Amino acid sequence: MEGWKKALTFSYDDGVTQDRRLVSLFNKYGIKGTFNLNSELLGLDGHLIREGMRISHVKVDPSEIRELYAGHEIAVHTLTHPNLAEVTDDEEIVRQVEQDRENLSELAGYEVTGMAYPGGGVNFTEHAAEVIRKRTGVKYARTTVCNYGFDRQEGEALYQFQPTVYHILEMDRMLALGKQFLESETDVQQIFYIWGHSYEFDYHDTWKDFEAFLEMMAGREDIFYGTNREILL
């Protein structure tokens, strides 16, 4: 949609098998997302213990990447998910990011240019962002620092991109922001950017709540539904 003023996009990390259900929901409501993958962890089995629950953390197989995420965007999440704020060797930062980008580009069948920093909390530094900007093919890199706003971020700020809201622990706030976004009128471009992990919907089975949110946000003629790449770049 050319000349858009409002855009909605989603970003989901780790490439877990719950992405299959999430992608089907996005497709059902005509919504697009970006999926950030660790290419050297694809296909691995695993689980997490969260809030006293055993949650599946099985990674999707490399063979299903292209078909599963068709119509959406595949993006970098590093090879093995290190916290880049703790990586002091610039060469290792470049290796983790650029090799993941190249691996994913081959799997996706197109050049991957987006990224999300792996890990929570302080998971990047200005130095790491600068290394990525200067020495890799990445064109934007999302942090986990939410700004709860819709203002467009451009230029070098794209390498420390701040999402609007984190979906699962702030679902009430996400809902309130969604209503605000739907009701807003603007003369400048605004972006509602939501991030998370699809396995988190298994916490207390919040899939239905999220689907209700998608249904509320979908089908608006005044909103462009795009991938991170389509909207940010």
Describe this structure in words.
The protein is built from 7 helices and 8 strands. It is of the alpha/beta class. The strands form 2 sheets. Strands 1, 2, 5, 6, 7 and 8 form a 6-stranded parallel β-sheet that branches. The chain has a two-stranded antiparallel sheet with strand order 3-4. The two termini are about 15 Å apart. Strand 6 (about 165), helix 5 and strand 7 form a beta-alpha-beta unit. Helix 5 packs parallel to helix 6 (about 205-215). The model has no long low-confidence stretch (mean pLDDT about 95).
Q: Which secondary structure elements does this structure contain, and how are they paired or packed?
A:
Elements: E1 6-13, H1 19-29, E2 33-37, E3 47-50, E4 53-56, H2 65-68, E5 73-76, H3 90-108, H4 126-135, E6 165-166, H5 171-183, E7 190-196, H6 207-217, E8 223-225, H7 228-232
Parallel strand pairs: 1-2, 1-7, 1-8, 2-5, 6-7
Antiparallel strand pairs: 3-4
